[in-house]
## 1
Amino acid sequence: MVSSRTSPEWHVLEFFIDGNDSVLTTHVRGTRFHIVADADQLSKDNKVGGQYRNLVQRAQGHDRLESGKHHESNDDAEIDSGVDMKRSDSDGSRSSHVKENPTETAAEALQCWMFAPVAKSMDELAPVDSDGSNQTLERWYHSPARFFSLVASADRDELEATELESTPELRKQMQGLVPEQALPKYLTNKLKARWYSSSELQVLEASDQPVGTPYHPCRVRDPETRDTFFLKVVDNRQPQPVKRELDILHRIESSRLHERMRVPTLQGLVYVDGTEANSRGQRKVMGFLLTDIPSPKPLTTMLEPSVSREMRDQWAAEAERMKEVLHENNIVWGDAKADNFMVDKDDNLWIIDFGGSYTEGWVDSELNETEEGDNMGTEKVVNALRDPIANVQRPEEEFEQETERPCTTSKRKRNIDNLESSEDSDRLSSVKHRRTESGD
């Protein structure tokens, strides 16, 4: 276990396993750390190799964690509009503890193991006073990067981190983590939303985040007006959900439906500082700003008998009513589920996330983005509210029913991105090639 002095708050930006190799990218005190675990170096017959093999096998699903631990059922879920969640320490931060944590997933255990040798030197690598309060969104996404490869110590009993020289290829990988997507001109003209530069917006501290630690800033502030917003970043690989959500948000506001139900409204579009619209008048966005819901909690966390029956009945009726308001105005919500309802500090219910798709267990795939799918998902939410004992599956039940499968940790729930693609293999090959050239 790393001492509290060297156990800083850290954000997982990206994590994937390719074969038996692993790559972890974190954000700590204003610096990004790209850490590579090469199986050729670590999967040997020694203490470190044994630890690594065990962690990778568990993360890949060949061995389950202790009874009661579980993965989310929706492995490919989108990032929610209202709040990102993950298991974390009580102060909302990740810590680099290596010992067993009863609330830790297998993937998170591997991440902590990989991060631990870098964390030991964090006071030198990224001093506390280097994080900079009041940092901008631009600075957060273009922070300095350091690159490491994990190796076993000379006696093979301890894991160590060797720093690699920065190269254009490695820097390009960091640039690839910056969210950026072109929007069609017809859509931006229709929205008539204010444009914010990424250098204009101040990132709020992690402790100010609604729930847990996001893998990207999710609350930002305009320093001039002191207004705060929820920032929903785009997914570079999935442009359609962004366009769908922005279009529906426009329709909701144009029809003044936000006056009939609690729903976040579009407050602005954010572009990467220094970028201009292209020849067709398109400007790339890194995300968009929504109403900042006061102290939001996903309705999923409120599906408990301990919550008053009166309150649950009130939310059930409101959930049904909001879904009907949308359908009366020919709007299909899409991805109807309890996580896409938020409860604010005054116990008011909000409806969020109009990016579409569906979530297994809530909506059947053939009903994706249909009114029937909305009806099915909302009915399950209502039933869970009315009778949580009969209609909410408990973690231990979910664990018992799971079959073994590869680790594909939910990006929305865990704030990591588990990718298995040729691009990932190229990243690892690049690092291995550099190590071979240096004679390591």
## 2
Amino acid sequence: MIARNLSSEMKRAIVGGTIGTVIEWYDFAAYGFLAAILGKVFFPSQNPTVSLLASFATFGVAFFMRPIGGILFGSLGDRFGRRSAFTWSIILMSCLTFLIGCLPTYASIGIAAPALLVLLRLLQALCAGGELTGAYTFVGEYASTKRRGYESSWTEAGAISGFLLGSLCAFVLSATLSQSELVAWGWRIPFWCAAPLGAVGVYLRMRMGESPAFEVMKEKGLIVSAPIGEAVRYSRVPLFQAFGIAIYQNVGIYIILTYMPTYFTTQLHFSQMQSMLSSVISMALAILFMPIAGAWSDRVGRRRVLGWSCGIALVLTYPLFLLMSQHNFGLALLAHVATSILVGIFLGPIPATMAELFPTNIRYGGMSLAYNISVAVFGGFAPFIATYLIASTKNPLSPSYYVIGSAVLTLITLASMVETSRTPLKENANAVPSMPLGMDEGMSSVEEGSE
């Protein structure tokens, strides 16, 4: 629950900004948690691994559209306003997800079924490219200087809540339907649920005002006609830094939170119910730690919280995967919870950190470009890579290497960054960088209004 001491305006910004991330990640989670079922429905094969790989490949290919969507919606958001851009993203995302639930199967129309699935996934990813970073931007610009980490962390908590909602839906389906019923029609239900969720999201978004920082920027005439080009020209270092810190973020999300139900059933040989139970508990605890970590970063700095969580993950990921493989559900659950909490702690300060890297007039576009390229390269194919690594090495612990490698790259990125917590947001791409922690902590007029 959002803290009571936040202003009503800040609460509305958080709820309005977060609702879309819930729906976006629910939509993606629905596919991830049903990957094994969808493999049978759309990619039937005598070899279950081939079906699963085909299903995850479809999941991953769609992510190449994310940067294009980031450029499109990010540019619209920087030129015409944050609210309109990510309201349209939620409308289109919900409609496309509903249509996936209406698709005929391979048994009905043959190869056209997986072709239509891939097309809808591509369009879905295009819309998703502007949603999460739009929420980062919108809430970050409403947030106060001293509590931006905490207040912005709710957007990421909303995203993982979407994962949790998707896993709960899959858990209920697994508990109430047989395997044959899931394959026949049960898999459609989570996708159909996107329509009412989307309607709620659009209603809440339409009641929001525009970001005050965007309004000030508009009044000062700082809006640029080509924000992506401006970002590449003036903010190359922040672009690379946003790309780098998103590496562990995305690998952690898509290995620890999305791929784990499949890993529990196909590699650890636990039941569908056990795998879903583990996911529900792990994600709930990860969400709990996000605002705590966000608030912590307001006190000790973003780099310190991100660095410690990433460093501990570097050391503990392999031992925790080893603990999972002991054929004991209690130990596997404990290990899954531990890895998820580490990811949750890392995710808490991320929204504020991303927003603080970029100036207002290119924030949405620059962040969307960098983040979504990182998602496409490291996140979307994470489940596919994990499945392939296990199949090729015959080592069920091999996905841990991918997580460890991502932690190393993100730690290198963090070493190149200066601390940005408790500093005013920059207004334009030519602005002097924010002053370091310990110097003037005066807020801009926009931020004063959100205290």
## 3
Amino acid sequence: MPEHKRNARAVPAVAAAAAAAVALAAAACAPGGGENGGGTAGGGDLDGAELLVAAKWTGVEQENFEQVLDLFEEQTGATVTYDSTGEDTGAYLGPRIEGGNPPDVAILPQPGLVSEYAAQDALFPLEGDAEAALAENYSDYWQELGSVDDQTYGIMLKAAHKSIIWYRPEAFDEAGVEAPQTWDALVDDTAGTLSDAGITPFAMCGASGWTLTDWFENVYLSQAGPENYDRLAAHEIEWTDDSVVQALETLADVWGEESLMNGGTDGAVQTDFPTCVTQVYGQQQAAMVYEADFVAANVVESGAEVGVDALAFPFPAVGEAPPVVVGGDIAVAMSEDEGTQRLLAFLASPEAGTTWAELGGYLSPNGNVPADAYADEFTQQLAQTILDAGEDVRYDLSDQVPSTFGATEGSGMWAILQDFLRDPSDPEAAAERLEQAASDADE
């Protein structure tokens, strides 16, 4: 992540307000042009073709994506219909797959589902222009993320930046602290000084187990490095590995200090997302909250102004380099229709990504979508960190493993890390539980 010595307030300041406003309001502008990249759909030769695209997006997210689809329709003559899957993508797709009536393109919320549906023979590999567009516009890491057994199925369309910590500048000013660049500075200088000044440093979102996996992933990626991160995601090293234990010990620097968390341990475990955001900005009970760029929407709902009352800084470096962890959505083909591959080629193009970027509420993993395509400075900065991280950016680990281990409430990583938040005194025991759960999920 570049330019870490820049004053962190200069990064999100007023521009972040624009990011939240654009993300929350329906975009009124028409899709932009942008430079065409490899694989862009061209020619109006799909007249009469009808395609169905399904994703979880609703509201403004859906409206903006439909504007991107409108551009494809204008270029090709195809008719594209959007259908929302709701939050449970599997519940939507399962019956359609069984009934032989899946959408032409499904946009999956996690890479693990690519493997699951590929194993069911429910997906068709990328080919032709779609495959070429992916190779031209995406790094090797993103290409591999959408592949199963050396067969490429998926295109990462939309990213969520999960390596930022939000804070109240008023609280920082009162305590006389600055945004930290390292983990030690976060714990000892920033959090410690806030606590000494009578200001609770963190609101934790421990009742939402997925937020705890995000904490772990950032610490682990920075401390253990990208190679070990990949090996752990693939379960090529066990969760009892020293690197896992060390990451848990590092988390205990915060999780083991009741005075650093709003409501102490009990409060940390019982507070969900987005209540933790409200505790920082609406109720002003704490100075910081960790979660992704989408926190901006919750800040506004809390009555605060992003860029004025709410700022953010990069997740501090635990090891040699700060982490860049992203979540996101992957488009796959579920039909053999020619228009399906053409649509995927278009979605993988810089033109589609740039058009979407101009509408707001969006980050692209496409390496040929320039940072200055985004409408506000805050999003431009986030996009640039993804571009600059290059091959070291990593996808949310818990979404790469089987969902029974990484994405199920009350079990697996969620439950084990919640228990560790309650009592982080035995990281070795927590690592053993993680290994057992990972092994059970692999069976």
